[in-house]
Amino acid sequence: MTDFQPLSHVAPIAVEALLDHAFGLDRHQRTAYRVRGSGSAIPALSFAAIDQGALVGTIQCWPIRLATDAGAAVPLVMVGPVAVEPRWQDGGIGRALMTHALEAADAQGLDALMLIGDPEYYGRFFGFTADRTGAWRLPGPVEMRRLLARGAGVPDAAGMLGPA
């Protein structure tokens, strides 16, 4: 049975090893890493999936902001990465981690979440859309259809995403 616990209960080296295994050693070159910068994940929104004492999945959420062209700095939460050990994939662990993190965000009243991901999956199961992200810019390449957000606080404004 999979147990979900705060990511802070897991050794950081184990989390990094899982992320390397799930996404490859070059994962730090991805645009998402540039968006969130060198800050720390939000502890109350970052979780580990543990099965029989083994780390099988993680989700992390990050404080970021949209620096709008009008001069405002709008805080957002970047959801992800969601990582599942390859041999555990397709078992619902990733979806359960997303649900757990989104419920925690909702409980805190956070209503401006974004991620880079598959719109068919994240739209269908979690309500993320690209409806308000079309004028956002990122510090690296991204397929704009994969730049998704959810929540009443998501700005429909032009601007650059970056660390909070």
Describe the structure in your own words:
With 164 residues, this protein is of the alpha+beta class. It has a single domain (2-163), classed as 3-Layer(aba) Sandwich (Aminopeptidase). The chain contains 4 helices and 8 strands, in the order βααβββαβαβββ. The protein has helices at residues 12-23, 31-36, 93-107, 119-126; strands spanning 2-6, 47-51, 54-68, 73-84, 113-116, 136-137, 147-150, 159-163. Strands 1, 2, 3, 4, 5, 6, 7 and 8 form an 8-stranded mixed sheet that branches. The chain is globular, with a radius of gyration of 15 Å. 31% of the residues are buried. The model has no long low-confidence stretch (mean pLDDT 95).
Gist of the model:
By secondary structure, the chain is an alpha+beta fold.
Instruction: Tell me what the CATH architecture is.
Output: 3-Layer(aba) Sandwich
Structural class: alpha+beta
Provide the gyration radius in Å.
Answer: 15 Å
Large-scale geometry: globular
The CATH topology is given as: Aminopeptidase
**Could you give the distance between the termini?**
36 Å
Number of strands: 8
- Main sheet: strands, sense, barrel: 8 strands, mixed
At the fourth level of CATH, the homologous superfamily is: Gcn5-related N-acetyltransferase (GNAT)
